[in-house]
Description:
Blueprint: H1 6-30, E1 39-42, E2 46-53, E3 57-66, E4 72-79, E5 84-88, E6 92-93, E7 98-106, E8 112-122, E9 129-139, E10 142-145, E11 149-155, E12 160-168, E13 174-181, E14 186-190, E15 194-195, E16 200-207, E17 213-223, E18 230-240
Parallel strand pairs: 2-9, 11-18
Antiparallel strand pairs: 1-3, 3-7, 4-6, 4-8, 5-7, 8-9, 10-12, 12-16, 13-15, 13-17, 14-16, 17-18
Amino acid sequence: MRYFNRPFAATALILLLNLQSLSQENSTEKAPHLSLPRLEFTGSSSFDFGDIYRGQKATHLFTIKNSGNDTLVIKNVSASCGCTAAMALESVIPPQSTAELSVTFNSEGYGGRTHKTVTVISNDPVDPSRQVSITANVQTVLEPDPAYLFIHGATVDSVTSSVIKLTNTTAKPVRILSAEANLAELRVEPTKKILKPKEKADLLVSYKPSKDGPAYGEIILKTDFQPQPTVSIRLTANAHR
Length: 241
């Protein structure tokens, strides 16, 4: 009759497990480690400029970090429209290093709450396309009503009058230094030269066309408000005989 040697069996089992573990470790050591770049944004990937005045340019720097173990390459940076310009200050970023992404918003032609995005394309194999976003509330120092003037029914050699309402949107008095138009047939005159905060004034517009047909122009108001020293109001006029 055979007897099962339990101590010997336990020792053999432990030896076998140790051999398997050693084999796995040697296999792991021989396997190559993957080198991958990883793009992430340090801090927030969005920024709010708050209130800015039309015509102002505002810039913010985002920080890009390569959190991987291989070189990160910025292949392309593109804006959602022509109103923003972005540039990666460093297009090649070593592992665990950072670079700055400069985003500039040109508020000319915009009004109210505005949201734009910038897309960054890189060699990150996991997420090659990443976005940052900017937001701004674009204001006008003297808000015109209407914002775009249409002059209809004008008669050649006769005067047609229109009124634009101006509102001081700031928290300080604003002085109108001059009011001009780029059409010789157009005359403009504000009823007040100094507007208190939230105060309204009329801008009187007179149009005396010398020929029939459409005409396109612009009214330029110059103010002492440095964040937005110039306010422009575009217009279309149509005259007949």
